[in-house]
Automatic annotation (TrEMBL):
Range of residues in the leader sequence: none
Domain C-methyltransferase: 241-399
Protein name: SAM-dependent methyltransferase
Pfam families per record: Methyltransf_13 (PF08421), Methyltransf_14 (PF08484), Methyltransf_23 (PF13489)
Domain Methyltransferase putative zinc binding: residue ranges: 3-64
């Protein structure tokens, strides 16, 4: 296997999470007696460019299809983050009614709706028809396709191209970034948000690894990829989203009007301190992952022995990685609650844990609630504050097992 950025032979295994089904392949009741397809979920690190990556076992057009069930608008914290971005970026870049914005992976219009409110023309690029349909109902212009260099040549050049949590999702990252350059105006800006590899390693966030994520990104590696396609990163911000993300700002290398911010050197120095520029920085991660699994299994076993009921909240992709790697089934976790009606009355892939509405928590009064999307745990805890009525406790498995009220 060769690195999908530099072509270097991949020799170093980062972590092996064994075989796993596609993270969003939720099942109907009729499908429970059918066979399920799973794919190896093994991650490598390139010792030349340090791109962390999985092999392309699951083709992107099979993942992001018409039955894709992730809708961004069901997280209030994510909507707030998106509105704050729009309110920030418009004055920062001097955008006005003559400007044009492209969002790649625009999902259900969760973000472009705020540009629409400001009367700024925009276009969404979204390959999943289920989410694109919702965006179109909001009056947002959407092209249902994957973004690449070929599509970029057909688009109106943009003052701003943005992509939130999409850079990790593309199998051909070089061609994707090439497309960004082709679709950008000479003085335009690109912003991309992605989970920071530094935090993934530091906080053992292995559940963010699944087949939709082809790459796991450091600033050093992203800077190298962008430079190879004629783009320069001129600023970067650290964000709290998804357990710690980066937002990069990039433009054409030829654009000399924008100075390079000192933030780049600060974050790159953090990465070097963690030895992300050496293979040593990636060793022993698998041992930490195994410890998370054993701690969770031990908790569930003890709860079972004590006759306690454990349920989960959030039928998120990261939850599927955690459950399937740990071998957890519905005999250990009774059900999973999710706010999205597109997931309710279905079952988690492989584990076959039923997905239900929140009212089931009030009815069943479980002893423990395992929060699977730990990145929005505060939002969930506030939402479920009423479980204190029967002394239910919350549980987080990552980075360390924690039980709290």
């Amino acid at each position: 296997m060769k690195c999908r950025h530099c072509g270097h032979e991949l020799k170093w295994e980062f972590v092996d999470l064994f075989n796993s089904p596609p993270s969003n392949s939720y099942l109907s009741k009729d499908q429970l007696n059918e066979g399920e397809v799973s794919y190896p979920l093994k991650v490598f690190v390139c010792d030349n460019c340090f791109l962390v990556q999985i092999d392309e076992y699951k083709k992107s057009d099979k993942i992001f299809n018409e039955t894709y069930t992730y809708f961004s608008s069901y997280s209030s914290s994510w909507l707030k983050h998106s509105k704050n971005y729009v309110d920030m970026i418009i004055p920062k870049l001097g955008l006005d009614n003559d400007s044009f914005v492209i969002e790649i992976a625009s999902n259900d219009g969760y973000l472009l709706q705020y540009f629409q409110e400001k009367n700024i023309s925009s276009l969404g690029i979204e390959p999943t028809s289920s989410t694109a349909k919702i965006a179109k109902e909001k009056g947002i212009n959407v092209i249902e396709d994957f973004f690449n260099s070929s599509l970029a040549t057909k688009l109106q050049k943009s003052d701003l191209i943005l992509g939130n949590n999409v850079l990790a999702h593309v199998p051909n990252i070089n061609d994707f970034v090439k497309g960004l350059k082709l679709a950008l105006k000479p003085n335009g800006t690109i912003t991309m948000e992605f989970p920071h590899l530094l935090n993934l390693i530091k906080y053992t966030q292995f559940d963010t690894i699944y087949h939709e994520h082809f790459s796991y990104l450091s600033l050093m590696t992203v800077q190298r990829i962008f430079k190879s396609q004629g783009l320069k990163i001129y600023d970067v911000e650290e964000l709290q989203t998804h357990g710690g993300s980066l937002r990069i700002y990039a433009t054409h290398i030829e654009n000399s009007s924008i100075p390079i911010n000192d933030n780049l050197e600060i974050i790159i120095n953090k990465e070097k301190l963690a030895k992300l520029d050496k293979i040593e920085g990636y060793k022993n991660f698998e041992l930490k992952v195994q410890q998370v699994k054993w701690n969770l299994l031990n908790f569930l076993l003890n709860a079972k022995k004590e006759g306690k009921t454990v349920v989960a909240y959030g039928a998120a992709a990261k939850g599927n990685t955690l459950l399937n790697y740990s071998g957890i089934k519905s005999d250990a976790i009774k059900f999973v609650v999710d706010a999205s009606p597109y997931k309710q009355n279905k079952y988690m892939p492989m584990s076959h844990i039923p997905i239900v509405c929140e009212e089931t928590i009030r009815k069943e009064k479980p002893d423990y609630i395992l929060i699977l999307p730990w990145n929005i745990k505060d939002e969930i805890i506030n939402q479920l504050a009423y479980v204190k009525e029967w002394n239910s406790k919350f549980v987080i498995a990552i980075p360390n097992l924690e039980v709290f009220e």
